[in-house]
Amino acid sequence: MKTTSEAAFETAIESVLLAGGYARVAAQGFDRERALFPDEALAFIRATLIVAAVTGQVSLQEMRA
């Protein structure tokens, strides 16, 4: 039987995610208090709000609120 480790498990998960289009992010940007990467979170929010506004799912006035 093969011996497994948490490090090997993490490496396997990371490989699948990277192959699926995810990008590696430097750990230094992680905000432990909020448990997220602020720059990545804000980029996602901005990108999805723009799509929502263009498709009419949300108004620019709602975006500013």
| Largest sheet entry | none
Number of helices: 3
Beta-strand segment tally: 0
Helix content: 55-70%
The structural class is mainly alpha
Mean pLDDT: 85
Any low-confidence stretches, pLDDT <50, length ≥5? Answer: none
Backbone shape: elongated
How many domains? The number is: 1
Radius of gyration: 18 Å
The termini sit apart by 58 Å
Q: Estimate the strand proportion.
A: under 5%
Short description:
55% of the residues lie in helices and 0% in strands.
How are the SSEs ordered, and which strands pair?
Blueprint: H1 6-19, H2 38-54, H3 60-64
Describe the structure.
The mean pLDDT is 85. With 65 residues, the protein is mostly helical. The N and C termini lie far apart (58 Å). 55% of the residues lie in helices and 0% in strands.
Kindly list the characteristics that best describe this protein.
65 residues, mainly alpha, 3 helices
